[in-house]
Design a protein that fits this description.
By secondary structure, this protein is mainly beta. The protein has a twelve-stranded mixed beta sheet, with no helix packed on it. A three-stranded antiparallel beta sheet has the order 17-18-19, with no helix packed on it. A hairpin with a 2-residue loop joins strand 3 and strand 4.
Length: 362
């Protein structure tokens, strides 16, 4: 059985209203009314119409945890007495910060208002630090300092930054890198008297460097390149897909400064080594038989000059060593041995010329 317990009933205005100065306590059952005013408490409640709240809904026994309506068209959530979430009138959301309202609508602001994420359509998404896009007024700084953003536009990723600026002033961004829909990576450095890009492998255990690999084709031609170095005047150096290395000045060098060397002595005779080198004509198995080359075979010259031969074990794309290996020849060392042998030949020729001249004189 339901009951209403009251301490006092007072009719203030005839039959217009009945006030319960000590409240109404209903242990079970339902109280139905058109409107309530003042404080209402209970275990559960069902409202079939609107509930009007001036400002705050808070957790019983935890008064610093609230849902608030601090201004028109604005909702906030607080925990521990601090605002954690705000939905602004334009749809912007702030996490622990008050979002800007002159930027793109429905943006998410965080990191004390210094960062935001927004999308301009179903194919565009921007992640921004210390800036916001205001439409006709362009980009503006959120706070003092530099700004940057990453854009995703129809499958294209682009990375931009802007130098240090002042809060709410205009920001001008420069693109620094992009990744196109087909995976092409482009980087745009702007550093006077310094390298534009740097790739580092910081491992202290058998580090590897940069690999350039064609996995689906073997062009093997000077018309396609592994690497091309150019400036605003033209090409300066090229490594072709057939292995050729070309440069504008036809100049190739090695470190040779005396400050780098020690134990410097004259080289011994290279006459016998060079005389025993077998110079061959051949073609590589990956090429046409008509594409003849001249050179040496590593296994043959190894028996004559073992120090000009290197054995390099194959690696996979992760730089891990395989069991197979390829031998190569240090042709630059072979050339120096040939120069020494030529000097010996010149000495012998000059001696013979002197002997011949002496015979003629006698």
């Amino acid at each position: 059985m339901s009951e209403i317990r009251v301490n006092n009933v007072i009719a203030d205005n005839g039959l217009d209203a009945v006030n319960f100065s000590k409240g109404i306590n209903v242990s079970s059952g339902i109280i139905t009314a058109t409107t309530f005013s003042g404080a209402v408490s209970g275990t559960t409640g069902t409202f079939s119409g609107n509930v009007d709240i001036a400002d705050t809904i808070y957790h019983t026994g935890d008064s610093n945890t609230k849902i608030r309506f601090p201004a028109a068209d604005t909702i906030t959530a607080e925990t521990g007495g601090s605002e954690r979430l705000r939905i602004a009138s334009n749809g912007d959301i702030g996490l622990g910060t008050v979002p800007e309202t002159d930027g793109q609508a429905n943006s998410l602001y965080f990191a004390n208002g210094n960062a935001n994420i927004w999308g301009s359509s179903n194919v565009n998404l921007y992640t921004v630090v210390n800036s916001r896009y205001t439409g006709g007024a362009g980009w503006k700084y959120n706070n003092n300092g530099p700004a940057s953003y990453v854009g995703q536009q129809s499958g294209l990723w682009s990375f931009h930054n802007s130098p240090s600026g002042t809060a709410d002033a205009g920001a001008t961004f420069t693109e620094r890198m992009r990744i196109s829909l087909d995976g092409k990576l482009e980087s745009f450095g702007n550093r006077a008297s310094a390298n534009a890009q740097l790739f580092q492998n910081v491992s202290s255990t058998n580090p590897e460097g940069l690999y350039i690999q064609f996995t689906q084709a073997a062009p093997n031609t000077s018309s396609r390149h592994f690497l091309k170095c150019s400036d605003n005047a033209g090409d300066k150096a090229v490594i072709d897909t057939n292995g050729n290395s070309r440069n504008l000045n036809n100049s190739y060098g090695g470190f040779s400064d005396i400050s780098l060397k020690e134990n410097i002595v004259d080289a011994g005779s290279q006459w016998d080594d060079i005389k025993n080198v077998k110079v061959r004509v051949f073609n590589f198995k990956t090429e046409s038989a008509s594409d003849k080359r001249i050179g040496v075979v590593a296994q043959e010259i190894e028996t004559v000059c073992p120090k000009v031969v290197d054995e390099v074990f194959d690696k996979n794309s992760d730089g891990e060593l395989l069991e197979t290996s390829i031998k190569s020849v240090k042709y630059s060392v072979l050339y120096m041995k040939a120069i020494k042998a030529l000097q010996e030949a010149q000495t012998r020729i000059e001696t013979l010329e002197a002997d011949v001249a002496a015979l003629k004189g006698s």
